[in-house]
């Protein structure tokens, strides 16, 4: 570093010291602790003096790790909403009367600590210091340090950042810490802040109201165990969320990219180890106890419990019983302290599941599942469109309470699978079953990730699959197509049409499903599948895209809102063509030339001058050619496989269009053929 830069850094650091109070000599305990001050004893004791809050860090915790996380307890229509937080930090030894918190980086490692490179990497990778705190005083026994955390909790964003829809600037003068609670592993704080808000809608010509709304924040500091969880290295055949890093100990000549999975540390009590080895089920040392928020409607609770407890079947394969447990929150429950929470969140649009984890071991430390108010309305519409032909209940009553409960149960089940560390997989979704379930793959994946030892135990040949089986996709498309013939009478059984609002909402969900399904069909092309599988996928696209017929539009929509619906259909069709014709798909196809030949043949037919072409199919022809030309413009010329096969396909199409523009009996076909030829000739010499 240049001398001038070093001087600037030193000056800035000196300014920081002056502003934050570094360099002031700590007080002895008797000078610090006076008659009006209160103390709450705990592993991290807390002192309160009027509005000031102080945290005691015992000397025995130097060199230990803590987790700092926070959530919005309530306010702005949110409940138990996780906030971006500091996470796992390391308490460094104190120097110059300053406590250091360090958020360590593990992106480069030597996994084997006995490897000779371990010490070298440790020396060469100095960890950064995140935050420094001047020592305010010494505790009564002199073995520890007391720091002032008042402003960190009240106004600052060093430990957590407040953000959310509609939340604006903070009024710092109104902030206060009004709750402190110590528990065996740490301490939690309840903080009152005031934030400006932005109303969602403003009536034309009216000024938006200005003001502040209260926000209650919970912040918890948890002391982590001295002995961390043993890492489990990832396997791409098993779908777990991972922590990735560069490992220097696997290859003497270069770093190797590797990963460990994210999972909970269940643990086994010493008294149960022999039973576990004998194959008997044992209860985990650290069960995952989900705390259910009190805000849920009573009718929801049984289904939520079922969705959580469904995973215990999978954990029995891993040798554990009663891993997932449920308890109901009450007035005395401090939600922020709970490791696992499921909350009814008015501000959440759908269902959101997230978890915190240790960056070194991958151990999941806490999780939150937030269920948004009203999410079932959309889910019931999707269920109707997907399974309405097979489930008479939803055809009779599209808000059927039994169906709603089952959807809620299974959405909770999916969310719990996510916070257990699993990636979403289509294996959980059998072809002709209405809803997902904990299936054979899930049980195998949980056993692989959570069993203490897999030595000597044979495993079935499963694999992590994200794409949906083509047969299942065809089945779903056929069902939805049949359902649309009945859709108007299902949505409006009493013929009270509410200006078409309800049917428009259901149709909108249908269009989303249409795009999802066809994107999943395209995923079967260019991903290592066989030529026969590629052909089968193209046949599905031919039926539901290339013909230009939108089967997923109800009669009422066609009669009243067809223009807008057609516009949406065309936008989605373009996205699907862009995916299908992308270089990575064409290059990865089992037979790129055959794929493009099929595409041209299906869209333009054989050279038959009497062949009837619908307006919708003409739209698809124009879309396809336009997308191909746009993609070709972005590609570099040369011997690239994509450029070669696409140019060849365009030349063959040009020959076909030359005949059609002059000889086809339908004037519209002749006009479209000329138009496409003109566009192609502007880009390439045909």
Topology record:
Blueprint lengths: L2 H18 L8 H4 L5 E3 L5 E4 L2 E7 L6 E11 L2 E14 L6 E5 L5 E2 L7 H8 L6 E7 L6 E5 L1 H5 L5 E2 L5 E4 L5 E8 L2 E12 L14 E12 L18 E6 L8 E6 L11 H5 L10 E5 L8 H9 L2 H6 L6 E5 L11 E6 L5 E7 L6 E9 L2 H13 L4 H5 L4 H19 L20 H11 L19 H15 L2 H5 L9 H22 L8 H16 L8 H6 L1 H19 L2 H6 L3 H13 L10 H20 L6 H23 L3 H17 L3
Parallel strand pairs: 7-15, 17-18, 17-19, 19-21
Antiparallel strand pairs: 1-2, 2-3, 3-9, 4-5, 4-14, 5-6, 5-10, 6-8, 8-9, 11-13, 12-13, 13-14, 15-16, 20-21
Helix pairs in contact: 6-10, 8-10, 8-12, 8-14, 12-14, 14-17, 15-19, 17-20, 19-21, 20-22, 21-22
Model description:
This protein is of the alpha+beta class. The chain has three domains: 3-92 and 129-201 and 209-223, no CATH class; 266-466, Collagenase (Catalytic Domain), CATH 3.40.390; 511-550 and 562-683. The chain is built from 22 helices and 21 strands. The strands form three sheets. Strands 1, 2, 3, 4, 5, 6, 8, 9, 10, 11, 12, 13 and 14 form a 13-stranded antiparallel sheet that branches. Helix 15 (531-546) runs parallel beside helix 19 and helix 20 (615-634) runs parallel beside helix 22. The longest helix has 23 residues, at 641-663.
Strand content: 15-25%
Number of helices: 22
Q: Show unreliable segments.
A: 1-20
Q: Return the structural class.
A: alpha+beta
Mean pLDDT: 87
Instruction: Please report the first level of CATH classification, the CATH class of the largest domain.
Output: Alpha Beta
Question: How many beta-strand runs?
Answer: 21
Report the major sheet: 13 strands, antiparallel
Please give the radius of gyration in angstroms. 31 Å
Instruction: Label the overall shape.
Output: elongated
Cα separation of the termini: 60 Å
**From the coordinates shown, what is the CATH architecture of the largest domain?**
3-Layer(aba) Sandwich
Total domain units: 3
Helical coverage, percent range: 25-40%
CATH topology term of the largest domain: Collagenase (Catalytic Domain)
